[in-house]
Each structure stands twice: as C-alpha cells, then as structure tokens.
Amino acid sequence: MTTTQLKASKPKNESVATLLAFILIPLSGLATDIYIPSLPSMAKSLELSDTHVQATLSLFLISYGISQLFVGSILDSFGRYKICLVSLLIFALASLVIASTHNIYLIYLMRIIHGITTGAIIVAKRAFFVDVYQGDKLKHYLSLFTIIWSAGPIVAPFLGGYLQTAFGWESNFYFLALYGFVMFFLELAYSGETIKAYSDFKLSKITGIYVDMIKTSTFSLGIIMLGLAYSMVMVYNMSGPFILEHDMHLSPVIVGYSSLFLGLAWMTGGFISKGTLHVYFYKKMAINLGFQLFFAIIMLISSMYISNVFTILFFAFLIHTSAGFTFNNYFSYCLARFPQNAGIAGGLTGGITYVIVSLISYAVVSLLPATGETELSYSYTILIIASVLIMSIIYKYRTASDTP
C-alpha cells in the first residue's frame, strides 16, 4: 500500500494511528520495568543467582541499543509499516516463550529478540510523526515524547508488582504478549505506510556519517554522559528489588510503588531541564553534578547510621532527579551537534547510550553487588565521579560551535 493510497482510503484513521503511535512510544520502559518487582522471584523460581536474572535486563538494553544504530536506515529504505507490524508480532511471540519456559538461555535469546523488535517499533513510530505532521503540530507532538516515554518506567513496575503478587513472574510476560498482540491488530486495522520517499540503502555512505560523528569528541563524550546518567537508574532497577525484598522483607507491591516513585524523579529532572533552558549549559551541568555528588556522599554517610526504605527512596529520588536532568540536557546537546543529520544522530545517540548503559550497569552490580543502602550509595558515587571526569573533559575540548 502506498502513502497516497493510504491517505485516500483511510483519512479518518490519522488520529487513531497517532494515538497508537503514542501508546507504543513507552514500550522500551514497559519491556524492562514491568518485571523489576519480579526479579527476586525469577531468581528463586529458576534456581539462579541474582546476576543471572539481572542479565536479562542487560541483554535487552544491548540489543535495543544496537538495533537503533541500523534500523533507521532500514526503515527509510523499506518502509515503516510492515517492519513495525512484523516486529510487534515477533515481540508478542517472544513474550509467550519467556512466560512458558524455565530455560534461562532461551529467555536470554528472547530478551535479545525483545530488544531488536522494540528498537524497530520505537524508531518507526518516531518517524511516523515526521512523516505525517509538519510545522507547529509536529513540534507539539515531538515535545510530548519525553513525557510520554516516561510513562513506561513509572507505570510498568507499579503494574508489575501487582501481577507478581497475584499471578507470579510469568504473568508480566503474558501481559507483554497481550499488549503486543492487541497493538498488532490495532495497527493492522488503523495504521498504514506513511513514508513519502524511499531512500537507497547505501551502507558505505551511512557508515561514513557514523564515523564522522563518533570522531567528534564532544559528541562521543556526551553519549557517555547519557550512559552514565541512565546507568544510575538501571543500577537501582537491578539491585533495588533485591534490597527491598531480601534485606528489608518488603512485598513486590511495595517494590512497584518504589519504582513508580523513582520514575517520577526521572520525569521531574526532565521538567527542571526544560525550565532552565536559558541557563548557560556548562554552568547548570556543573551545579547539577555538584548537587548529585553531595547527595550520594550524604547517602553513604547516613547509611552507616540509619537505613530503611524511606532513606533509600529519599536519596535515590534526589539522585535520579539529577540524572534525569543530565540526560535531558545531554540528549539535546548531542542532537544539536549534527542538525543536518538529526535522524542518524538520534539513532546513534540512543543506540550507543543503551549499549553503554547495559555494560556499565551490569559491570557495577557484578563487581559491587548492592546488598544494602551503603553498597548502593557506593555505586551511585562511582558513577557520579565518572560523570564529573567526563564533563570536565567535554568542557576542556568544547568549541564555540559546541556550546548550546
């Protein structure tokens, strides 16, 4: 079906297709955070170590990140609609496999498939808005992306906590399967191909653009800043449930509420970032990292005298708010480096960021397992100090054109 045929035969479906696109935007957060309250139960049920089940998060993030590096060019060359449809169907089937098996290696494989298909779906839906809308309306919809995306990490663990308590860890993946199948049939009924002109798939040209971008030091270091910021969230996601359930003997429902609370912290950081656009970039980033390091050190000191769910969430909220602030600023910073190739820059930024997050967060929880608030505060402190060092290098190598 061509774009012209789609517009001629289904003009009334544009608003429904837009709504479906927004429903799919939070899929990456949903696919990771919905089973966070179930991690301890998964480890017990599968008779595996904490590290083995935590790897299911890392494998998803790696495959999700890598897929974004290439899927944009594929979608430009072969269209959005069919690839998105097939990806939704495969995502749903992979969820059913995870829910019905106790083989950790098969689960690993399915989580990799989850990451690849989620990357294709998300990038396709981002492109949908550029294909369909223009001008102020496009700007309006794009401005909602961060807020809509934040809904996944906020709602997913809250829902997952109740599913875990009522039906067990497998129910999270049955829910993802249902979500995938429902969205597949809705997309089939109401969406269609929106690409206006297909591009030639020339790998050499695309690779050349990637290399030029990566050679730009402030761009590459900015992506590392993004990875360090989101790693703070992922370290908690991978460790927090075990601390709250094993060490503090709290229920998965409480774990879900806690993750919801920290999801709001990330969103709060994004709103603060938007409210400080007029402040000089390097000044506000230095102040933010200073506060973040202060919060982590106070958390470390206080944990030696008092430690409970309230102190963990209090300090984690402050640190995650600062991380959200860093992420929002540096994502815009990286995209602004290459306005002539914003699409590729966005895919490269998002892709490498998730690869970095998966590697750093898994390394931190493996080398420094967070069995309590003290260990968690050490993890935060290490990541923040690394952020300060990277930030100082970016400041050193900045140029007039790099300053937002």
Automatic annotation (TrEMBL):
<dbReference type="InterPro" id="IPR036259">
    <property type="entry name" value="MFS_trans_sf"/>
</dbReference>
<dbReference type="InterPro" id="IPR011701">
    <property type="entry name" value="MFS"/>
</dbReference>
<keyword id="KW-0472">Membrane</keyword>
<feature type="transmembrane region" description="Helical">
    <location>
        <begin position="213"/>
        <end position="233"/>
    </location>
</feature>
<feature type="transmembrane region" description="Helical">
    <location>
        <begin position="343"/>
        <end position="365"/>
    </location>
</feature>
<feature type="transmembrane region" description="Helical">
    <location>
        <begin position="141"/>
        <end position="161"/>
    </location>
</feature>
<dbReference type="Pfam" id="PF07690">
    <property type="entry name" value="MFS_1"/>
</dbReference>
<keyword id="KW-1133">Transmembrane helix</keyword>
<feature type="transmembrane region" description="Helical">
    <location>
        <begin position="253"/>
        <end position="273"/>
    </location>
</feature>
<protein>
    <submittedName>
        <fullName>MFS transporter</fullName>
    </submittedName>
</protein>
<feature type="transmembrane region" description="Helical">
    <location>
        <begin position="82"/>
        <end position="99"/>
    </location>
</feature>
<feature type="transmembrane region" description="Helical">
    <location>
        <begin position="55"/>
        <end position="75"/>
    </location>
</feature>
<feature type="transmembrane region" description="Helical">
    <location>
        <begin position="377"/>
        <end position="395"/>
    </location>
</feature>
<feature type="transmembrane region" description="Helical">
    <location>
        <begin position="173"/>
        <end position="192"/>
    </location>
</feature>
<feature type="transmembrane region" description="Helical">
    <location>
        <begin position="105"/>
        <end position="129"/>
    </location>
</feature>
<keyword id="KW-0812">Transmembrane</keyword>
<feature type="transmembrane region" description="Helical">
    <location>
        <begin position="285"/>
        <end position="306"/>
    </location>
</feature>
<feature type="transmembrane region" description="Helical">
    <location>
        <begin position="312"/>
        <end position="331"/>
    </location>
</feature>
<dbReference type="InterPro" id="IPR020846">
    <property type="entry name" value="MFS_dom"/>
</dbReference>
<keyword id="KW-0813">Transport</keyword>
<feature type="domain" description="Major facilitator superfamily (MFS) profile">
    <location>
        <begin position="17"/>
        <end position="404"/>
    </location>
</feature>
